[in-house]
Give the backbone structure.
Amino acid sequence: MHFELGRRVKQWLLNSQQYLVRRLDSSVRFRILLSFFVAYTALLALQSLEQYLHNSHSCQSPLSCWVTHFVSVISVDHLEGFSILVVAILYLLESRDRKKRKHYEAWQIIDQAAATKVTTSYARLHALQDLNEDGISLGCLDVSQADLRGINLRGADLREATLRGANLKNANLSNANLANADFNEANLTDSNLSGANLKGVYLCGANLARANLRGANLTKSNLSKANLEQAQLEGVKLEDANLAQTNFRNANLTRANLQGARLRETHRGGADFKGANLSGVTMPDGKVNL
């Protein structure tokens, strides 16, 4: 019983502390007072050091020196420096709130573009890039039919995102997490998807001509009727992928792993499968490669 009571008291104290910290953190007055305190302390320390170096033997006692320095900081001569220091500290204290506002405004731009069904929006493009640069997840994002040509979303988290029919020509999606995303009918011509996680992704009818997919993971992805002409698929993982009616003309699939993939009715003229793993692959004639 005593143990349970002690645990509850401890939890109450912890919750109270967290609540107080949140209230103080959101209080403008507290931040201003904190800025003044830090600025004053910094100026006092500098003033004390300066007085000590120049007049180390003029004080009768350490206490009298400290009192003199404490009072001397509050002077017109120090007003400008004190003001600048306060503003600088306030700016630093407000940095987290500014970042939150920046993210909120970015999401507003993205939502407004989606609501008005605007295809081309440079504001949305930059908003997406800014969010990604700040490490914000873009998972489950819906930007179907959007014009995102040349966008840089390197390393982005776009799991289960919907980019159906989007124009991503020359986009940089290298090392991005695109697992289970919907890229059906999307234009990914000349895009960079190297090292990306495309496991379970939908790319039916997508245009990936000349795309860079080196080292990408396309396990269990659906690439039926996709155009991968001249695409770089070196070392790519395509285990159990649906590649029915896919265009692989002049594509580089050296050392690719296609184990268990379905290649029925694919177009492979000029494709390089040197060193590729084709075990268990359903070939264009319907036979399984042993």
In short: The two ends are 68 Å apart (CA to CA). DSSP finds six helices and no strands in the chain. Residues 220 and 241 are 4 Å apart (CA to CA).
